[in-house]
Amino acid sequence: MKLPGGSAVKYLKILVFILIITIIGYSFYSQQYLLTCFMLFFLIYFGYICWKKEEYRKTSNFNRRALYGSNIVLFFIFLIFMRLVQIQIFEREFFQNKVMGQINKTDILSGNRGTIYDSTGKRLAFNKNIYTVGINPSAIYDRTNTMNGIVQILNQDFIIKDKAVLLEEIKRGYEAGRKYKVVAKNITEREKEQLDAIVKKYGLTGHEIRFDRNIERTYYKNDVYDNIVGFIGYNYKSNSEKIGLFGLEREYEKYLKQKVLQRQNFYTRGRSIKLPIAKEFIRMNLNGNNIYTTIDNEIQFILSEELKKKFLSSKSDEAYGLVMDPNNGKILGAASFTTNKNKALRNPLFQNQFEPGSTFKPIVVASAMDGKLITKDTLFDVGNGRITKYGHTIRESSRSTRGVLNTQEVLKRSSNVGMVLIGDKFTDAEFEHYLKKFGLYDKTGVDFPGEIKPYTVPYKKWHGLKKSTMAFGQGIVVTPIQLITAFSAVINGGVLYKPYLVEKITDESDIIIRRNIPTQVRRVVSEDISRQLRGILEDVVADGTARRGQVEGYRVGGKTGTAQLSGKGGYLKDNYLASFIGFFPADKPKYVILVMFLKPKGETIFEKYGGATAAPVFADIVKRITKTKNILSQDISNITEIKEVKSGEANGFVDIEMPDLTGFSPKDVIYIFKNTDIEIKIEGAGLVDKQFPAAGTSLEDVKEVRIILK
Question: Which of 126, 484, 578, 661 is surrounded by the fewest CB atoms within 10 Å?
Fold first, then answer.
């Protein structure tokens, strides 16, 4: 049976409606919301067409065609609308990311690593900006002017690559669609300024050329400071960022390190213009902090030069030197040299241990005097220069050391037997107690990475000979920094200070954010004992084993050391650590200096001893420091004090005498009369040979002093 035509169409419409509703339900259930919306709008559109059907029948052919045409246009508008819905609602995040990818750029902002200065403000480690120049081959042919600018850049003298080769590589990069090509590396700040002028002239954009900044760490006199300042580099923890690996660069990494900041900025497509946004960023200081060390550049240079001079002439395996202010622990100079070109990454001043030898004796003597076990006049019979302890014979280093010596003479002659007898005054517990008081059982705490702790054994485990050998500096191992720190406590008034290398840390505005102040660890000996030791050690230099450490016109004190080096089978014959530790001025020490030479060579044994090798270096260092720092000699200091004498009992007139200038330098003479109105006239060259007026003459009416040099 056939259904009427109208009924068939009607049922077909119903089926279509049911099908659309079914699709809408299924798509909604399966979370295909775009299809759900499309079918929903299609259902509305289909219902609209069905609703308008009767109107189509009743209208004229022209109107009918117009209605059909409008429905077709409406259908395409419907499709456009659905596409907009898809983009703006359902695929909004996808297209938003596409747009942001074209205009968004992550800018990495980084500051400069902090600068390291010496105590006078001289830069020891600082930053230098260098640049890598790269171009975009795929963009430089877009504008004629762009290529002209690139050619001008390639024509600069500091672009060392061949220009023709570069142009050919750029052309091939353009054809291959490459986005980046390096044309120059290690461009300095001044060279970049020249390139910036060309970029500005030809209107080159950041899309066409870019300058990638790198920071090159630069070190002042690296051969002098490398073992203290250190260096930066990469390691497995640095994440492709340079960090401090050694020295102060490592110790103060958290202060020196620059900050790195990532920010999202918006640009035009060519990256040439930054788009303004409402979001505000807080300005941040990204630079690292600056460090001011206690190192004095002048003293460091003097120490390094004199130490190296003797290191080479004595053909030593290694040499070490330290200069410290004994009154606060400031390290003013630190240097070391070695013949081992494959040396490990270490600073021997803080990380190598040695038996100190006789330089250790003042510490033992000060301990015994402080413990009231001896006085400076206590007598010791060293006999024929030999003593046997626990089956071992200990001998004097000099055959002339015989008979009865007092404490002062024990140090003056560097008597080993005398020191053994002083050591016998202690119990083992007392001896260990003083070693601990002098900090020889712990690290000094110096602000340098990798300081090693002294190797120590509790006194209950000492063998019988242990205390006797330690008394004259063998059987105990210390680092140079531990030795000079302990010795400073002997001569500075009896206080042990913590040594340090950094004075203060400041930000870029020179605001101090940290300051290292002198740290008193403990009192070790009394002020009176310290004063007595200064006098004894001054006498050691004046008339003892350290005579080569004398400096004419200055009061200095000190002690030589010659320690025999040990090996696997015992002590090595004719292999020594020659050393000298001294201080000046002797009455009020401002500088304490330690110099050590490992295995010095010489034709005679004496040339390998501390008195012959190390003491003269100390003297040369002191001479140069006094000149550099304008430290008056003891003689000049005495002369500059006004001498008042009575010229006659009748009137009681007070007069000033002309000093004896013979042997002084012109510089010293000028200094003496600097606060007077007397004119100084100098003739000749050299030192003062004659003077007018003569010594002892009244200076009351003198307007001119004439000196003749020879």
Answer: 126
